[in-house]
Structures are given as C-alpha cells and as structure tokens.
Amino acid sequence: QVQLVESGGGLVQAGGSLRLSCAASGRTISSYAMGWFRQAPGKEREFVAAISWSGGSTLYADSVKGRFTISRDNAKNTVYLQMNSLKPEDTAVYYCATNSAGSYYTGTYFSWGRGTQVTASS
C-alpha cells in the first residue's frame, strides 16, 4: 500500500511559479510510473503529466507543455511538479497518483493523494 501526500500548493499571481511535491510512504515508488492530475471546480479530473519509473521519459498534457516539468527523486520517494507561467485556468486541486506499471503507457493509477489547491489569480 502506497500513501501519497501532496504539498506546495498556494495562491500566486498569474505568471508566477509553484513547485508541488508528492511524498510517498509505505512502499517504494521507484519501480512505478507516477502521474499528476488536476480537477477544477465543476470539471472532471484531467491528466497533467506523467513520468516513467526511472525518470527517463515524461509526458505532458498540451495545456501545460513548455510550462510544467515533472521530475522524481527515487532516493527520497518523492515526485515533483514545477509549474511556471501559471495561468488562471491552471487553478485546480492537484493530485499525484501511482501507476501499477513502470511505464505510463501501461497499467492503471491505483493510489491517489488527497490533493493540494493551486490558485492562480489574474
């Protein structure tokens, strides 16, 4: 069982930056792909970014490509999401999740954190 805790959210002005962290406990995540998702009020949860078990491959939603960077430190059992040039439409609760496979192209996300709120004001 993997427990995930997100942190680093907050209120920033449009154009600002935030760095989210996702700390895992209970089990090492070094063999799993990891993902970030977000859910805005009144909208469905959507994919933001994913990273392979080694960190060698990443995938981004078109809406965040070039502005967000996902990374991981397996020694710290932690995944990060660096968010730059934030826009009001990035406002959402951000969740990290563990994939059952080492590649984000396979497997399913089976463990989720409780989320952290990100608000980018105009």
Features:
seven-stranded mixed β-sheet; single chain; 51% strand; 122 residues; four-stranded antiparallel β-sheet; mainly beta; 11 strands
Please outline what is shown here.
The model has no long low-confidence stretch (mean pLDDT 96). With 122 residues, the protein is an all-beta fold. It contains no helices and eleven strands.
Task: Show the helix and strand layout.
Blueprint: E1 3-7, E2 10-13, E3 18-25, E4 34-39, E5 46-51, E6 58-60, E7 68-73, E8 78-83, E9 92-99, E10 109-112, E11 116-121
Parallel strand pairs: 2-11
Antiparallel strand pairs: 1-3, 3-8, 4-5, 4-9, 5-6, 7-8, 9-10, 9-11
Shape: globular
The average pLDDT value, as a whole number, equals: 96
Order of helices and strands: EEEEEEEEEEE
Which class of secondary structure composition applies to the elements?
Answer: mainly beta
Contiguous runs where pLDDT drops below 50 for at least 5 residues? none
| Count of DSSP H/I helices | 0
- How large is the share of residues in beta strands? over 45%
According to DSSP, the number of beta strands is 11
The whole-angstrom Rg is: 13 Å
Q: Residue share in helices?
A: under 10%
Distance between the termini: 40 Å
Largest sheet: 7 strands, mixed
